[in-house]
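Memo subject: From amino acid sequence to discrete backbone structure tokens
Keywords: amino acid chain, backbone geometry, structure tokens, three-dimensional fold.
Body of memo: The sequence and its backbone structure tokens, given next.
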Amino acid sequence: MQTILGAGGGAGTEITRELSNYTKEIRVVSRNPKKVNDTDQLMKADLTDPKQLNEAVKGSEVAYVTIAFPYNIKVWRELWPKFMKNLIDTCIKYKTKIVFVDNVYMYDPKYLSDMTEETPVNPISQKGKVRAEVARMLMDAVEKNKVEAIIARAPDFYGPGVVSSMLYQTVYLKLLKDKSPQWLGKLDVIHNFIYSKDIGKAVALLGNTKDAYNQIWHLPTTDKKLTNQQWIELMMNAMNKQKKIQTMPDWMISVLGIFIPILKELKDVGYQFKRDYFFNSSKFNKGFNFTPISPEDGIREMVRL
């Protein structure tokens, strides 16, 4: 049995789909689970409840953690450390391996121009400090030989079904309404995005590769160094809509954040969109002979829906 904890999001759905290439015993767990594969076993659970988490993990060879708590720093501080402690304890109990899908918020901003698995951890954002804490909890358990685990890191997502990304919310939806796309950072800096289907393929592969455990892996991301503006232009070309790109200064984000809470929360990690941000996944790409989708093809697939 392999189990998806927090299934249903862009990453969780693709991982569930790809796991069917390795096993037909897949347990899909969330508050409102839905089948991705015909043979999926659905379990409705509140994973912040230790008893329900215990039942979700019980009998699992591997637990894939794709849970997404509400994007709010107060919620993150309250729930993430408790969840990780309960997860580790439960997986120790059942000898279940952990594959934790993580982000890059914990990295030192000085090194964003070429992030690798060895990039120093030195978060400046409040959300980054929470992510650093829970990643450290997991790797401490690994180093003490209490549990086998993988931390699979990814930059910002995009792709079919990924509706919470900036590319979707401030570019795709605007163009769909024949409006100008908006951006919260600089247009002329490099930024990486990872295609959701590449996440699914890579995480399923890692979870089913014995030698991949007890390490941090960067998930496969294009090595093309495109600027934010070039990503937006790719989407405009794919949708055949040429518009002037609007950028929002910090003061406007602060004002709008009063009415649109997500903008206020994004401001905490907004530094990532103001400097070169290149996610180096050469360890995975070389190790598994994997070629990530090109930005051009990925954007075309995204807007084809």
Remarks:
- The domain at 163-192+224-303 is CATH 3.90.25 (UDP-galactose 4-epimerase; domain 1).
- The chain has a mean pLDDT of 93.
- The chain has eleven helices and eleven strands.
